[in-house]
Specification:
By secondary structure, this protein is an alpha/beta fold. It has seven helices and six strands; from the N terminus they run E-E-H-E-H-E-H-H-H-H-E-H-E. A six-stranded mixed sheet has the order 2-1-3-6-5-4, with helices on both faces.
């Protein structure tokens, strides 16, 4: 059966009930009470299909939909699901014309240090250190905040069980800012593939 985990507070079983709850989450976001909702379950139970169904409802409400899919294999740029979303909502994003910090961090697998030359590549852990990581996360959050204030936004992060750790940390950062924004973040993941590690939303969503 399809299961939905919302903020790790409760799990609902049954597609109709899940869709009803998702629609309520969309309505809250349109009203300026945004949030994070996670769809979890075994492979093949229909998590992505549920997300697609709710996107149809979203579009009838004149809400922007941006979809970011995580990549199972190697070679994806840093913050890949977020980069796909920014290409939809950020000014110039469709041309890859993103602010320097964001463009550098998403340029290559593992990213680059914000503010440094795009030629100088560094390991992923360095991208996530201290003030530089905070500045990058704050910049991306600001882009999303600007986008959703002109038109409510639903951002879908599909297959989070394949996400890179920096993308999940950015999700954690953003989630703390959603309560007063017209923005819903909807994530899907296979709970059977995610243990209690940094890669598991269950570790930090509350």
């Amino acid at each position: 059966m399809d299961g939905m985990e919302a903020g790790n507070r409760h799990v609902l079983v049954g597609r109709k009930q899940v869709l009803h709850t998702l629609r309520l989450a969309v309505d809250d976001a349109v009203a300026g009470r945004g949030g994070l909702t996670l769809l979890s379950g075994e492979p093949g139970v229909g998590k992505t299909r549920l997300a697609e169904e709710i996107c149809g409802y979203v579009r009838s409400r004149e809400v922007t939909v941006a979809w970011g899919s995580c990549w199972e294999g190697e070679g994806a740029p840093g913050f890949w699901p977020w980069l796909q979303i920014l290409r939809v909502v950020a000014p110039g994003g469709e041309r890859g014309d993103l602010p320097g910090d964001v463009g550098s961090a998403t340029a290559e697998p593992g990213g680059t240090l914000p503010g440094k030359s795009a030629v100088r590549r560094v390991p992923a852990p360095l991208v996530e250190v201290g003030q530089e990581r905070f500045r990058l996360f704050d910049t991306i959050t600001g882009l999303l905040r600007t986008a959703c204030r002109s038109r409510p936004l639903v951002a879908v992060l599909d297959d989070l069980h394949w996400s890179d750790a920096p993308s999940l940390r950015l999700l954690r950062f953003l989630a703390r800012n959603l309560g007063t924004l017209p923005m819903l973040v909807l994530g899907t993941y296979r709970d059977v593939e995610m243990g209690q590690t940094i890669h598991s939303p269950k570790c930090w969503v509350s």
